[in-house]
Amino acid sequence: MKVVTIGLGYIGLPTSLMFARHGAEVVGVDISKRVVGFLNAGHVLIEEPGLEAYLTEALLQQKFKASLIPEEGDVFIIAVPTPNLSDKYGSCDLTYVKKAIESILPYLKKGNTVIIESTIAPCTTEDIIQPLIEKVGFQIGEDIFLVHCPERVLPGKILHELVNNNRIIGGVTEKCTQKGIEIYGLFVKGKSLGASASAAELAKLMENTYRDVNIALANELVLISEKLGIDALSVIQLANEHPRVDIHQPGPGVGGHCLAVDPYFIIAKAPERAQLIHQARKINSQMPGFIVNQVQEIMEENKGTKVTVLGLTYKGNVDDIRESPSLQIINELERSTSYQIVIFDPYVAEVGTSSIEEALVNSDLALVLTDHDEFKEISEKQIRNMKTPILFDTKNCVKTLNQFEKEYSLGRLPSVKQLEM
């Protein structure tokens, strides 16, 4: 089986190398000469455990090559970005998907399967992608098998989850679904969940919307608790003692290409119906501004001048800064305050300082925005570098407490009472 993947990013590259590891011949296509050159030289530009070893093995066995143009193959996988449009509802921008489909049309032949892994709005596969393929004379379900198979992997564990997670296989026809199940059966050990293409599209979006809405509930509790002077984290801990309650943890906002993007694709399709989803997006989108206000209150109270930001990425132990609330918070602090802002993130070496020790020198506030393992234990020696040893841990991840002069979190804000537990 020959697989041609269009897009060699966070999903396209791991998927390509997984197929190659299991015996497929794979051509990975990307528009970036830099990406293609690095991959063919055996280097990955994505921080993901095991990925470079997979690439090395695939190159040695001549099962993978990167290219700027597609080739003929048996299976074509579209794994390109789908950002939000700058319209009223942040609808799905299909520019890259359409270009990817157009790029493979000259190479398609009867019997091929086209798989869309990019996250797309409901009904996109049937209403937009299917006509693009049929306009060149193919019949979907007979000549070409068209499938939407959304990814559902966790950065940092992508290679494991590609194999072991259940997989939704959404075919335009039943034959398309069966083709998709057969293809992913090459390496997927989880269940193959057959569905219509539209159901698969909406299911993927709802997986991320579910988490976004539940995080918004926790963040709204923070906003309410701050006004009432109550520790929100204590409330969550107490409420979660109920056997059927599991409130998520609050945070400085929601990032990544999934949670901060996908709900808008649903909203745009049915704005008059998606009221709860829309409100959840508003709540999570306002959290960076709330954090900035809290930082200003802390700094004014302590007459501070320097803020050390610990963490740029949207989640811990990855290098992904897409839609990261940290970037919004830093930009707002730089725009609206005169504080000196110093940044440290061990996964984003090209930005900020080279060590936490350097970043904390003469600092008045350690602002933790990402739950990297490196931040869970901040040593007494590192804290001694600070001018005013104050911690604001928005991820509730720092374990070495009681070493700072003052410690704040999304439960313990400047205006919040400390409840006895």
Q: Would you give an account of this structure?
A:
An eight-stranded mixed beta sheet has the order 3-2-1-4-5-6-7-8, with helices on both faces. Helix 8 (197-228) runs parallel beside helix 11, helix 10 (262-269) crosses helix 11 and helix 11 crosses helix 12 (325-336). The chain is built from 14 helices and 13 strands. The model has no long low-confidence stretch (mean pLDDT 95). Helix 14 (380-384) links the parallel strand 11 and strand 12 (390-393). It has 421 residues and is an alpha/beta fold. The protein folds into two domains: 2-190, Rossmann fold (3-Layer(aba) Sandwich), CATH 3.40.50; 209-409, NAD(P)-binding Rossmann-like Domain (Rossmann fold, 3-Layer(aba) Sandwich). Helices cover 39% and strands 14% of the residues. The protein has helices at residues 12-21, 33-40, 51-60, 95-104, 124-134, 158-164, 174-184, 197-228, 232-239, 262-269, 275-302, 325-336, 356-360, 380-384; strands at 2-6, 25-29, 64-67, 75-78, 113-116, 145-148, 167-171, 192-196, 306-310, 340-344, 365-368, 390-393, 406-409.
Helix/strand order, N-terminal first = EHEHHEEHEHEHEHEHHHHEHEHEHEE
CATH class of the largest domain: Alpha Beta
Structural class: alpha/beta
Determine the CATH topology of the largest domain. Answer: Rossmann fold
The side-by-side strand order for the widest beta sheet comes to 3-2-1-4-5-6-7-8
Mean pLDDT: 95
Major sheet: 8 strands, mixed
Distinct helical segment count: 14
N-to-C span:
60 Å
Count of discrete domains: 2
Beta strand count:
13
Please give the radius of gyration in angstroms.
24 Å
Please state the second-level CATH architecture of the largest domain.
3-Layer(aba) Sandwich
Task: Assess the beta-strand content as a share of residues.
Answer: 5-15%
| Full CATH superfamily name of the largest domain | NAD(P)-binding Rossmann-like Domain
List low-confidence stretches: none
Approximate helicity band: 25-40%
Shape: globular
